[in-house]
UniProtKB/TrEMBL annotation:
A Pfam family of this chain: Glyoxalase
Keyword Oxidoreductase: yes
Keywords, sorted A to Z: Dioxygenase, Oxidoreductase
GO molecular function: dioxygenase activity
Annotated source species: Paenibacillus aestuarii
InterPro entries recorded: Extradiol_RC_dioxygenase, Glyas_Bleomycin-R_OHBP_Dase, Glyas_Fos-R_dOase_dom, VOC_core
Record-given protein name: Ring-cleaving dioxygenase
Taxon lineage: Bacteria, Bacillati, Bacillota, Bacilli, Bacillales
Keyword Magnesium: no
VOC domain residues: 7-131, 152-269
CDD domains xref list: PcpA_C_like
Length: 316
């Protein structure tokens, strides 16, 4: 029997300015900084995780903010647009809020849904849509009441250098169902309530260039560790070459690149972000894996201090 993912686990992107990254995603979008750690492969670089109050799968966007990083170019082989969902009736609130921060907002419709499309401070493509599905956020910050707050991912728009291959992988490897096509996009749906709607432009795109303001990879959900091991075998059976299972502290991961050029990860729901700090104080302290603890003083010295703070007006 074929396997299926319930949807997106997380999306990981590049950035250049750590504090500006926090100001945008926590200060403007009102997400919670649920984990402040480092890139395990480059400990001089933060790895920041933003999500709902618990950092639940389907709500987590993560960044490697590295000062001086060259700017990337959004294109094929990437997540082109990351979609967030908000409660019904709150799109007007978000349009006004984004405009108050000097953010250019484009209004458009896709598959009979109204979207606000915009970019973050580094050019990363984002959009907001109203949907009733998914639990409401319980996190309120910097003038965003919980009943207007971002719930998590609605999904993503995948930019592929081989659209047919990407769509085939979504259906025949990840188990999504094709639910619509409008002449410009095909829409696929997973079974979960968050991060479950994926749109793919029908026309293949030229390669993008990785760098600040672009997505590095998109991760899909595995229920648990046993399910994850089965996913590794399933991906291999479908002709891909997944990595070994890698312990990322807060989830286990495997990676493979689909034939449209996009780096896919499959990540476990457990153990989650309360593994190494209390749920009520997530993201407040720099968390290091045990093998880096002996280097904490040096690592902290090399990182630019950051803080979650309220922001108002236009950001520089």
């Amino acid at each position: 029997m074929s396997k299926h993912t319930t949807g997106i686990h997380h999306i990981t992107a590049f950035a250049s300015d750590p504090q500006a990254n926090v100001d945008f995603y926590a200060g403007i979008l009102g997400l919670r900084l649920v984990k402040k750690t480092i890139n395990f492969d480059a400990p001089e670089v933060y790895h920041l995780y933003f999500g709902n109050e618990a950092g639940s799968p389907g709500t987590i966007i993560t960044f490697f903010p590295s000062p001086g990083s060259p700017k990337g170019e959004i294109g094929g082989g990437q997540v082109g647009i990351t979609t967030y969902i908000v409660p019904q009736g709150s799109l007007g609130f978000w349009e006004n809020r984004l405009m108050d921060f000097g953010i250019t907002v484009k209004k458009l419709n896709r598959f009979q849904e109204a979207y606000l499309q915009f970019a973050d401070n580094e050019g990363l493509g984002l959009e907001i849509v109203e949907r009733s599905e998914g639990p409401d956020s319980r996190w309120a910050f910097n003038g965003i009441p919980a009943d207007k707050a971002i719930k998590g991912f609605g999904g993503a728009v995948l930019y592929s250098v081989n659209a047919e291959s990407t769509m085939d992988t979504l259906q025949n490897v990840l188990g999504l169902t094709k639910v619509a096509e409008d002449g410009e996009y095909a829409r696929f749906q997973a079974t979960g309530e968050l991060g479950n709607i994926i749109d793919v432009p029908l026309v293949s795109m030229e390669w993008g260039v990785g760098g600040a303001g672009t997505v590095h990879h998109i991760a899909w959900r595995a229920n648990d560790f046993d399910d994850h091991a089965e996913w590794q075998k399933e991906v291999m059976r479908k002709g891909f070459r997944p990595t070994q299972i890698i312990d990322r502290q807060y989830f286990n991961a495997i990676y493979f690149r689909e034939y449209g050029g996009i780096l896919f990860e499959i990540a476990t729901d457990p153990p989650g972000f309360a593994k190494d700090e209390p749920a009520e104080s997530l993201g407040e302290k720099l968390q290091l894996p045990e093998w880096y603890e002996k280097h904490r003083a040096k690592i902290e010295q090399n990182l630019i201090p950051i803080q979650v703070r309220e922001v108002d007006g236009q950001l520089s």
